[in-house]
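Onboarding guide, step 5: your first structure request.
Type a short instruction followed by the sequence, for example:

Predict the 3D structure of this protein.
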Amino acid sequence: MPEILEITLLSLQISGIATGISLLLGLPLGTLLALGKFPGRSLLLSLVNTGMGLPPVVVGLFVAIMLWRSGPLGDLKLIYTPGAIIIAQVIIAFPVVAGLTTSALQALDPRLQLQLRGLGASTPQMIWMLWREARMPLLAALMAGFGAVISEVGASMMVGGNIRYQTRVLTTSIVLETGKGNFDIAIGLGVLLLTITFLVNWALTVIQQRSARKG
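The system replies with structure tokens like these:
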């Protein structure tokens, strides 16, 4: 039981940090892609949209090559650490948040920007008001980002190594127990993972709906 608790807490810590970093990176980029006009915008948007469908194992392979002891970032000694898993999960979730942010802001009435400018709003003030107006789909982007990483297994196995007491998370534990034929333990861990995912998304949905009622 203590080991399961430790695995659960590590899963939440890694995925929570990865989701937070993805939000910090994806929200500004998605805003830039939705509102900005600059050379290379279409290419960057295409890369983000492609990134939304990146196979986690490909991400894991790329991160493993970069962080391997003989790789370009090998001196950082991050391979087979929670930090390596966070890096891989950020790469997975970041395009999801950025792409959904772009879609959310582009769906707003374009006249809203003109009205805000007409009222004398500065660029930061205008962006903040647009974020407020699109807060419900932006929360959905946050939920999608968290869901993408909390349930991910391929990249976590490749860069984390599934090391007991160090990098073993819920998804990699399920794979391990299934491989050992311990289906009862694997099912229990699966139910726990689904419960955690439900509770986190339920909390975000409550916030989303309260925000919608306030208008």
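Each response can be followed by summary notes, for example: The chain has one domain: 2-214.
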